[in-house]
Design brief:
By secondary structure, the chain is an alpha/beta fold. It has 17 helices and 25 strands.
């Protein structure tokens, strides 16, 4: 049957979904709104648009053309926001380099992405000094500096960022092109093998922006993001487009605050000084901030925080709520651009008490518009939505990466059966809400039963003496595997809490029937710190190696 395509008038404008179109409405209704960097740099949206044009003009002078890859190594800044727009709007590809990877991994990602121009903050010049002779495709370096001082380096630079922007033309003409043109690329931070490159088109990023904006603005009061908010990311801008939020914030025309390097005292000061009301981060960052001494005297009652990159522990959520923070979970991954679900309370939700509301806020959440989520068994058959049947989350949405860069085998595995495989184990309840129980590689099988490390971590986190916790499976001759809890105690609790206290705490949940008796950790170790990945997630592969 032939498609009944619409008739297109020759003079009609087809309006490709390009990133440049996200700037139209904020420039119309919020041209004087502020972009702030560390409280030191402050300019308007109108100036942002001018600087985007100047940056593109400068990059064009360095030979950047349609299809060129421009890599960026910077802290969260107004400059990064400018790159989010200028580079893709030229038809070039923005590579956001994970600055927390090892030098050899950074080298691999830049070479694999075939970056042509590299914008590098002075803080990372020393890293590049050690690998510059191995860079295969980079022709030009642009130095980024927060201070007017000479950076000692043998690395030749084509220009300095601010000088290049100042010399560029704000009238740079951004062309139209196919909306499926690649706009960005970055590399996953998996704990096995080499980093894998994911990539996203203009169409995907624009649709992600629109759908996420709709989802975040849909609640009647709490757990929402709107034009009256003040936005500050606490998720690195190199990581999954800072969860896509800078595009959303810009499209809405809200005040944006960029903190640079994450210094706890500065982050708290910016929240207080700039009136920040909306942020997102991993749980470990929020934990760090709430334990910063200056946070104790700071009013956080207007602050909304989305926790992603891993589960929101109940213990941390309770502490945040006690401080007045409107906290909830967001779910996604590098391959999904990232947003798939948000733990927003339905208008019909009537939690019986504060504990039940906390449970709802800590769930994985409800799929956002345009996301098709299934929980399936190994044969790709759907499991019942009863809140119990557990299988793998597979998904479809307009913004999911269509593969791994130059890695067809891994790409086919990712998309086996026509759905993107997340490797997250979960169930769906009768309300359509997702609850992740574990990563496929982290679930523990003991005594013939599956034990969720995430559920155990959440229960242990509720002990008043626990600061952080990670649960791993360790080999056991009799049971196959047994759970081990690695616990970091709160300051001042070292002499008050023992390993057996933690086991007693967990055993109480088993006696109530909350968890199986097999889930009670056979061992608890009190440690100084839990190893993290480059984006602040718990590194269970390393923990298993060290303690398993």
């Amino acid at each position: 049957m032939p498609d009944n395509l619409i008739e297109v008038t020759p003079s009609a404008y087809s309006y490709p979904l390009l990133i440049k179109h996200l700037l139209y409405t904020p420039l119309l209704h919020a041209p004087q709104q502020q972009i702030v960097y560390q409280g030191k740099v402050r300019y308007t949206y109108r100036a942002l648009r001018e600087r985007i044009g100047r940056l593109a003009s400068g990059l064009a002078g360095l030979g950047v053309r349609h299809g060129t890859t421009v890599a960026v190594m910077d802290w969260d800044s107004h400059r990064y926001l400018e790159c989010y727009f200028a580079v893709p709007m030229m038809g070039a590809v923005l590579q956001t380099v994970n600055i927390r990877l090892s030098p050899e991994q950074i080298l691999y990602t830049i070479n694999h992405a075939r970056a042509d121009v590299l914008l590098v903050h002075s803080d990372f010049v020393s890293v590049l000094e050690g690998i510059k002779d191995k860079l295969e495709t980079v022709r030009k370096f642009v130095l980024i500096a927060d201070r007017e001082e000479k950076v000692p380096s043998s690395m030749p630079t084509a220009s300095e960022y601010e000088a290049m922007v100042a010399a560029g033309s704000p009238e740079f003409a951004f062309p139209d092109f196919d909306e499926n043109t690649r706009a960005t690329t970055f590399y996953t931070t998996g704990t096995t093998g080499l980093p894998k490159g994911v990539y996203f088109s203009h169409r995907q990023l624009v649709l992600h922006t629109i759908a996420a904006m709709a989802a975040l603005s849909s609640p009647a009061s709490k757990q929402r993001f709107h034009r009256g908010d003040v936005y500050m990311p606490i998720t690195p801008m190199f990581h999954v487009h800072a969860w896509g939020m800078p595009y959303i914030a810009t499209a809405l025309g809200v005040k944006q605050v960029y903190p640079g390097r994450y210094v706890p005292e500065l982050l708290i000061e910016l929240i207080r000084q700039e009136g920040v009301t909306f942020s997102h981060c991993v749980a470990t960052i929020l934990h760090m901030l709430l334990n910063t001494p200056v946070a104790k005297d700071t009013d956080l009652s207007r602050w909304k925080v989305v926790i992603g990159g891993g589960p929101l522990p109940h213990g941390l959520a309770r502490v945040a709520i006690e401080r007045g923070i409107d906290i909830f979970t967001g779910y996604g991954m590098s391959e999904t651009c990232p947003l798939l679900a948000l733990a927003q309370l339905k208008p019909s939700a009537t939690p019986r008490d504060a504990d039940e509301e906390l449970q709802l806020r800590c769930k994985t959440g409800l799929p956002v518009p345009l996301v098709d989520v299934r929980v399936v068994d190994p044969d790709m058959c759907d499991l019942p939505h009863d809140g119990k049947a557990t299988g793998e989350i597979v998904a479809r949405a307009p913004w999911l990466t269509q593969g791994y860069l130059n890695n067809p085998q891994a790409s086919e595995e990712l998309w086996a059966g026509g759905y993107l495989h997340t490797q997250d184990m979960a169930n769906i309840d009768t309300e359509g809400c997702l609850q992740i129980t574990d990563r496929l590689k982290d679930v523990i099988k003991t005594g013939g039963e599956w034990v969720s490390s995430l559920e155990l971590e959440s229960l242990i986190s509720q002990h008043p003496g626990v600061s952080e916790v990670a649960v791993i499976g360790v080999k056991d001759e009799k049971w196959g595997e047994r759970p081990m809890a690695l616990v970091v105690l709160r300051t001042g609790h070292a002499s008050m809490v023992t390993e057996e206290d933690i086991r007693i705490h967990v055993r109480a949940f088993a006696e109530k029937g909350v968890i199986s008796k097999y889930a009670v950790p056979h061992a608890v170790r009190l440690i100084e710190a839990i190893d993290k990945t480059s984006v602040g997630k718990c590194d269970k592969k390393l923990l298993r190696k060290k303690y398993g």
